[in-house]
């Protein structure tokens, strides 16, 4: 099931996305409004609205976004880094989260903004110290993410908080896909229609299971929290006016335009 969060007539709701998902078929999609929230038992209301009549919002509003760095060997190499012995974790604040169609604001303190296409894991229930065999039980589904990074700031500051946590630095969407095997799907990023990144999740150094186990050893994850699983090689610059799209096989496409901040 594809679960979207959206706004219509000033109201915010969740809905199940129905219809074709191939490129060009978006106009035929409809939303069956959900009674309740997707983190608990819910029913479909049977009230349907065309996707074209709503504004898509970030599919979740996470309490926290936990990012994982250097989880693809070729990406680590392209930036001159070695593969770390343990996962490199960082946070992106809730205020960095935007949805598909929202604008990425180029931060005034950076001169080198980069895209990073990633598979995002959406947590469905409160959990900590999750054993490997229970990981699937705590996951609601998966969505597309762009770990937008001020690369020059990342290089000169020891902490990545500003480089990866500025407002609009975490596009998520367009919806959550609950029925996906994340082990081997394609991740693609285009800028103005030109392919920049193309990889597969099977190239991740640490799997989704590895990451959930590792993170929940240290902290409790709450429903709606998000884990960013790392980006494949091919990261590159974004400029004001660019349109960046992240497409993940089995999920859909997250699209955002870059604008000047302020």
Automatic annotation (TrEMBL):
Gene3D superfamilies assigned to the protein according to its UniProt record, in alphabetical order: FAH, Fumarylacetoacetase-like, C-terminal domain
Domain Rv2993c-like N-terminal: from-to ranges: 1-59
Q: Which InterPro entries match?
A: Fumarylacetoacetase-like_C, Fumarylacetoacetase_C_sf, Rv2993c-like_N
A single GO molecular function term of this UniProt record:
isomerase activity
State the UniProt keywords alphabetically.
Answer: Isomerase, Metal-binding
The segment(s) forming the Fumarylacetoacetase-like C-terminal domain are 64-258
Can you supply a Gene Ontology BP term from the record? carboxylic acid metabolic process
This protein is called what? 2-hydroxyhepta-2,4-diene-1,7-dioate isomerase
Its taxonomic path starts at:
Bacteria, Bacillati, Actinomycetota, Actinomycetes, Kitasatosporales
